[in-house]
Amino acid sequence: MLEVKNLTFKVNENGVERSIVKDISFTVENGEMLVITGPNGGGKSTLAKVLMGIEKADAGQIILDGEDISGYDIDHRAKAGIGFAFQQPPRFKGMTVDRLLSLAAGEPLPEQVACRMLSSVGLCAKEYLKREIDGTLSGGEMKRIEIATVLAKSHKLCIFDEPEAGIDLWSFSMLIQQFERIHEKKDQMLILISHQERIIRMADRIMVIDDGRIKNIGPREEVLPTLLKEEPSCTCMDQQA
Known about the structure:
Shape: globular
CATH architecture of the largest domain: 3-Layer(aba) Sandwich
Protein name: ATP-binding cassette domain-containing protein
CATH superfamily of the largest domain: P-loop containing nucleotide triphosphate hydrolases
Number of domains: 2
Radius of gyration: 18 Å
CATH topology of the largest domain: Rossmann fold
Helix content: 25-40%
Structural class: alpha/beta
Keywords: ATP-binding, Nucleotide-binding
Number of helices: 8
InterPro entries: AAA+_ATPase, ABC_transporter-like_ATP-bd, ABC_transporter-like_CS, Molybdenum_import_ModC, P-loop_NTPase
GO molecular function, one term: ATP binding
Largest sheet: 6 strands, mixed
Distance between the termini: 36 Å
């Protein structure tokens, strides 16, 4: 179980302090899928980075299965069982795709296993195993490879920041199938940040964040009708290849 208590994150812009995440509290039950949505610039991605330890909270607690990880850095949070997929994945010149997948899994992966992981996110596997994680890969290819690295290892909690961004419809459909398989097993908590209706409809619960605060949170069947009425943009999908 994930417990987030009074989480706050601030930035200093030209000498002026501004709160990006404002006293947010919520829980995610074991096996639950929570989809976080809301207007752009509302603090969703920042919240995800604070949960992963990429950004350091100014106040509040993060408790994972009874363990207070609030003071842990990103490495220790990963060891504690959190996986994270960036909205804009980093590139690693000199690092091959198969090597990255093995590092993510924590052990050398047989070629057939690495190929299966890449195929699951819509990549023609053998063409990519020895490719470098550099500027020769498109944004969509990078996004799919990073999602594969998260899926390479079982986690207590997986966080995906707008997994639909920059991928084509066919790959998106395969990605949806992956999320469905993970969710059916009920052995990992999932937090997905998304504006895409198909992903939002998969949620057990939906949390709407606006201006750094929780505007609404509850079961999908309660929140979704209001969300679709107020935020018709959530039905859109970035179809960029």
